[in-house]
């Protein structure tokens, strides 16, 4: 079972950035316990949401030809709160990308106010050789991003490896 902690990809530029949105609904089960009686999206789920968007930026930047495994989160800070009824804007940026690793940073905002930031997320990359698996990853991104395939493919198709 997969838990998506973002709702839609708003924009993306291969090898550079991705912006996604996460709407926090009062009906989300994980808000049930809350913090000191307050229903807030937890810091760990904020970070997971940011890591998911950053991971998809890696997949998108490499034309879905790699699997990205998160191996390091460095200097993560939760500086605000995200309550039900709010929308979090997640912005991931590529710091470095090679054939075997990716390094990104990520920030999250609620109507322009900083909620969280991660200075560095490192991913180890493993090649996907099977064309059917590459197509399946592209299809997952289509589904998870809310983008049609023609929009995904409209972005230049050369993978971005520095």
Looking at the structure, what is the overall shape?
globular
**How would you characterize the largest beta sheet?**
6 strands, antiparallel
Which stretches are low in confidence, meaning pLDDT under 50 for 5 or more residues running? none
How far apart are the first and last residues' alpha carbons, in Å? 33 Å
Return the average pLDDT rounded to an integer: 87
Beta percentage is: 35-45%
Q: How would you describe the overall organization of this protein?
A:
The protein has about 160 residues and is α+β, with helices and mostly antiparallel strands. The chain contains three helices and six strands, in the order ββαββββαα. The chain has helices spanning about 45-60, 130-145, 150-155; strands spanning about 10-15, 15-25, 65-80, 85-95, 100-110, 115-125. It has a six-stranded antiparallel β-sheet, with helices on one face. Strand 1 and strand 2 form a beta hairpin. The protein is globular, with a radius of gyration of 16 Å. The chain starts with 7 loop residues before the first strand and ends in an 8-residue tail after the last helix. The relative contact order is 0.22. The mean pLDDT is about 85.
């Amino acid at each position: 079972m997969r838990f998506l902690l973002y709702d839609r990809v708003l924009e993306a530029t291969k090898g550079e950035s991705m912006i996604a949105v996460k709407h926090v609904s009062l009906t989300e089960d994980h808000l049930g316990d809350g913090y000191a009686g307050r229903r807030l999206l937890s810091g760990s789920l904020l970070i997971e949401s940011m890591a998911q968007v950053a991971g998809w930026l890696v997949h998108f930047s490499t034309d879905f030809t790699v699997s990205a495994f998160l191996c390091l989160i460095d200097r993560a800070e939760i500086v605000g709160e995200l309550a039900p009824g709010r929308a979090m804007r997640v912005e991931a940026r590529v710091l470095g990308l090679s054939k075997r690793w990716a390094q990104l940073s990520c920030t999250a905002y609620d109507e322009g106010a900083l909620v969280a930031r991660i200075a560095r997320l490192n991913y180890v990359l493993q090649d996907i050789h099977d064309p059917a698996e590459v197509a399946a990853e592209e299809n997952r991104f289509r589904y998870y991003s809310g983008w049609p395939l023609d929009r995904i493919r409209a972005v230049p198709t050369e993978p971005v490896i520095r």
